[in-house]
Specification:
The protein is an all-alpha fold and 133 residues long. It is 65% helix and 0% strand. The chain contains five helices and no strands.
Amino acid sequence: MPALAMGVAAGVVCFLACTKLKSIFGYDDSLDAFGVHGVGGTLGAILTGVFATVQVCDTTLVSDGKPVGLIDGRAALMIGQVVAVVVTWVLAAVATFAILKILDATMGLRVKRDEELQGLDLSQHGEEGYIFI
């Protein structure tokens, strides 16, 4: 049953991230990678710490039937999951910033306004993708 709850929560949260959150902050994410993988992965990692139980854990990690997750009454795994999420966010932010700086210095991050208005198929590839005439 917890897996169903996690799936429903992930579906709702990812949908809201891809629609509402993106429109509120106005960021450009045409493939919704952040809304699905960033937000959904974060939720999944945190909910793993909530729903972990003795029945689904490796017996070498759990001794004497002690509680594992937050639902069983132990917050240690949940805290570990939150710390792991924060470390992952920081790593992703720093790596993305470094990659963007390198790309901006070598080839630039955006095309010129005129090229974008003309259409990237024509300005970048010399051909039209769709001809509706």
